[in-house]
Each structure stands twice: as structure tokens, then as C-alpha cells.
Amino acid sequence: MRYINSMQHIQATTYNDKKLNSDYLTKILSDCPSSNRLLLSLFSQPNLNQMSIKQLIAWGELFEHEPATIRVATGRLVKQGFLLAGQRGNYNLGTTNKSIRILASTWRHSLAKIEQWKGGWLCVYSAHLGRISKQNIRFRERAFRLTGFEPLEKNLWCRPDNLTENANATFTRLVEIGLENTAILMKVEHFNNELARSPESLWSPEHLENTYERLVSIMKESEQRLSNLDIKQATKESFLIGEHVIRKINQDPLLPEEMVDASARKKLLTTMIDYDRTCHPIWHEFLFSS
């Protein structure tokens, strides 16, 4: 009887995991990018740093964007400096928001940014910055999110001091991404025990590890499925999954191994690298046929 109950538990757990993976995949595939997001995601790919307007329109049609919408979005991104207009209707990546571009294109090396944690913390105090505008606050919080900071208290953001870059480099990166340069960065060796919550509790290791595992499963299942899809379906699915996973990798707080399963995080990265190798030939075939 105990064996039967154990098997029933395993089967129920497997079913629930598959259901969660299926729901997550549905969410990913329904998250069609805006025209701006699509173009910036494409140009952040090292093998797609130059494309013609015809190719961009073909990509837009995959996500039901009209040619006129892609033309307008392209022109707007050129004016903003995100794209550069070349000869014969070709476009290259611009120079605006260089730090975001670097972050988007260097995800393969994200784990090299981590070093052994000695128990210290990096903290940023922001109360004196005020609420200048909703846009400023959005840029500020995006900078914190992309560098792994979480609010310990109102206007006090922190993260483990376990990055290979020094504190000045972290602050420079925060400012380049959107934090005001008058914010105050501190290195903290110890927090008092009377805090309402411990800094370690700001992150959920279980949530991070479940996400790592789920995304690995989604990529492996997709990789097996892509060869049976037509080129447009395969391009669309692989783009949406790849973009989502890269966004998760770039937003990962890079916690020390004392706080999260580092092997699960590494498996996510290596699986994404393999998936990326599968995607690019599909995308080039799509562009060649467009």
C-alpha cells in the first residue's frame, strides 16, 4: 500500500509539473513583443546586428505588426539613437543606452560576474532623491532590478557583495542604467539582528530554482519540437522562448551559492546557450526566405 501511495504521489507531482510547464509556455508564447521591443531584441543578437527594412518587416509580420508600424518604429528608434540608418535601407544598432545593450548581449558570461561571498552587502540609499517623476522612478527601479538589488526598507536597497566588479563599478553601472548619480552607495559588513526582516529573506531561492528548472524543461521540449514546425512557427516560438529566458538570465540577482542552488542556475545558462545555437540557423533560414 505504501508503494502504491508513493507512486500515486509521484504521478500527481509529475502531472502538476507538466501542467505548470504548459501554463508557463502558454504565457511565454502569448507575450508578443511591441514593435520597439521586437526591434531592440533583434539587434541585441550578435548575429543580427545589421538588417534591411524588408527583413525587419518580415519579423514584424510574425507578430502581426503591419509594415507601416515597423517603419514608424524603426524611424523612431533611429531618432532616439537606438538604431543607425545605413545605406540601401539597412540598419545597425545605435549607441544610445550602451549599458542596456551590453547587458542584453553578454548574458552568456553572466556567471563569470560572481565571486566567493564573504558575507558583506552593497546598499543604496535613495530617500533624498525624491519622487521627481514617474519616469525617473521607473528608471531607478529598473536599474536596481537589473543589478539584483531589492528593498530592505523603504529607500534602502541591498544585494550581496559577491560580484567580481568593485563597488564603484557597480555604482557606475547603476547610474548608466538609470539610477541618479546622487544616490548613496555603501558597503555593509553586518546588519543588526533587530531588523523587521533579514536581508537574506529578500529573495526566494525556491522561486528562483523552480524558474530555472521550468525554463530548462521548456527549452528542451521546444528544441525537440522545432524541427517539426514550419519555418515561421519555429522562428516565432524560438524567438519568444529565447527572449524570455535571456531576460530572466539578465534579471537574475546572481546570488551567492549560500543562498541559491548555483548548479541549477548554471544549467539554465548552458541550456540557453545550446538553445541559442539551435535558434540562429532557423532565424537565418527565415530571413533568407523572406
From TrEMBL:
Q: Which InterPro entries match?
A: WH-like_DNA-bd_sf
- Domain of life of the native organism: Bacteria
Q: Which GO biological process annotations does it have?
A: DNA-templated transcription
Q: What is this protein called?
A: PaaX-like C-terminal domain-containing protein
**Organism annotation:** Paraglaciecola psychrophila 170
